[in-house]
Structure to design on (321 residues):
């Protein structure tokens, strides 16, 4: 993935009256959120790149569709996460799961890295490695020994290189180095959680909905069935998803189906009819209409235009793993 392909914070989704945006908390979108990069799963950038342009202050906002990890190598400041202020320093790692209200004040010339991980890949990763929930699902500042930075630096450098997509198998290598970073963090993560405010009720509901959806999206469950399983009303689920994710529950399901469809089309040689069956469509024609509505292309055309070669080598960085 070339740096020039990425446009950060390119738009704001404004929620309906009475939602978070009414109290001044915008929902930022990046990359695939805005439709211009549907295939990304992770991004890495220099921490000072975005902070310098914003006067070293990032106002409170939420990210509905990805998690972020900020690793500080130089400088200091404060992180505000859902009403709690925490200081950070060199060696601090700031974790922001999806839907958490957060903002920052950085000292001038603070340096480090920002890792952004797309939700579908994040969900798949946590299903494969549930122990990483300790790292990836708790918002706040975590102080690590400076020696840990020395272990992280070579893996982050390799991840940055592979994300440029200049070599065969870059998607595979990117995931390998991302997992190496996660492993280092996991092995050195403080056992005691930092002081944080109780989770936002609607944010927690959306996270529970997404987690349950991961196990059931191929069955294409109704919103009513999902609400019942979550122990809430349909209205409560719709309100939470609309406020925290800017999408309806059905749109979140369609988003997940589309990500999986793209993964099948990019990584496998399965016929479109078989992919349709795998994703719970009763007819291949229904799947094709769904895909065209969401992407503007037929599944076959999308597969062709995205360079499928019958294997993993050469394909792009695809959400969902």
């Amino acid at each position: 993935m070339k740096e020039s392909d990425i446009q950060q914070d390119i738009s704001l989704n404004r929620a309906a009256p009475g939602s978070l945006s009414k109290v001044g908390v915008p929902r930022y979108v990046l990359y695939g959120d805005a439709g211009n990069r549907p295939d990304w799963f992770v991004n890495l950038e220099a921490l000072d790149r975005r902070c310098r342009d914003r006067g070293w202050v990032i106002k409170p906002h939420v990210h509905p569709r990805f998690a972020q990890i900020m690793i500080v190598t130089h400088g200091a400041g404060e992180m505000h996460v859902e009403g709690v202020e925490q200081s950070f320093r060199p060696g601090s790692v700031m974790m922001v799961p999806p839907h958490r209200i957060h903002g920052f004040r950085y000292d001038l010339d603070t340096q480090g890295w920002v890792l952004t991980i797309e939700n579908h890949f994040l969900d798949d990763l946590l299903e494969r490695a549930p122990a990483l929930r300790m790292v990836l699902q708790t918002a706040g500042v975590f102080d690590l020994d400076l020696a840990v930075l020395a272990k992280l630096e070579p893996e982050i450098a390799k991840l940055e290189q592979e994300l440029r997509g200049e070599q065969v198998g870059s998607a595979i290598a990117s995931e390998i180095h991302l997992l190496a970073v996660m492993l280092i963090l996991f092995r050195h993560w403080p056992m005691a959680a930092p002081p944080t405010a109780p989770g936002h009720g609607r944010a927690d509901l959306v996270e529970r909905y997404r987690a349950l959806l991961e196990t059931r999206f191929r069955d294409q469950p109704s919103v009513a069935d999902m609400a019942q399983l979550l122990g809430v009303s349909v209205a409560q689920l719709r309100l939470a998803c609309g406020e925290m994710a800017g999408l309806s529950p059905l749109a979140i399901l369609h988003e997940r189906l589309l990500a999986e469809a793209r993964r099948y089309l990019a990584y496998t040689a399965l016929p479109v009819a078989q992919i349709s069956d795998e994703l719970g469509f009763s007819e291949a024609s229904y799947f094709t209409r769904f895909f065209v509505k969401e992407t503007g292309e037929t599944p076959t055309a999308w597969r062709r235009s995205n360079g499928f070669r019958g294997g993993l080598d050469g394909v792009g960085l695809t959400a969902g793993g």
In short: The first helix runs from residue 47 to 53. The CA atoms of residues 200 and 311 lie 42 Å apart. The longest strand covers residues 66-74.
